[in-house]
Amino acid sequence: MNPDDPLLALLACPLDKGPLSLLPEGEALYNPRLRLSYPIVDGIPQLLPSSGRKVSADDHESLLTRIEGSAT
Predict the structure, then answer these.
(1) Of 6, 13, 37, 54, which is least surrounded by CB within 10 A?
(2) Residues 8-67 pLDDT 10s
């Protein structure tokens, strides 16, 4: 999955139905509101509520920095 993929605009978090951010390496989708990371396995986003991995506060800040850095 790449940042220009039109599918990315359609994907939403299964819990809060809000938008997700693609991490720069394309290995996961991130919901900063709930601090959940959803893996992408073989190009397929795993968007089941049980697939979300809780992210620590330190990792959250790091991920936000990486996402903002890739947007510029």
Answers:
(1) 6
(2) 889 999 999 999 999 888 889 999 999 999 999 998 999 999 999 999 999 999 999 988
Instruction: Please work out, in degrees rounded to the nearest 5, the angle formed at the alpha carbon of residue 10 by the alpha carbons of 22 and 69.
Output: 25
| 70 close to 2: Cβ distance less than 8 angstroms | no
Reading the block at residue 37, the tokens are 């990371």
Helix or strand (DSSP H, E) at 22: strand 21-22
Q: What six digits make up the tokens of 9? A: 């605009």
pTM score, whole prediction: 0.87
> 59 in the Ramachandran plot: left (φ > 0), alpha (ψ -120 to 50) or beta?
alpha
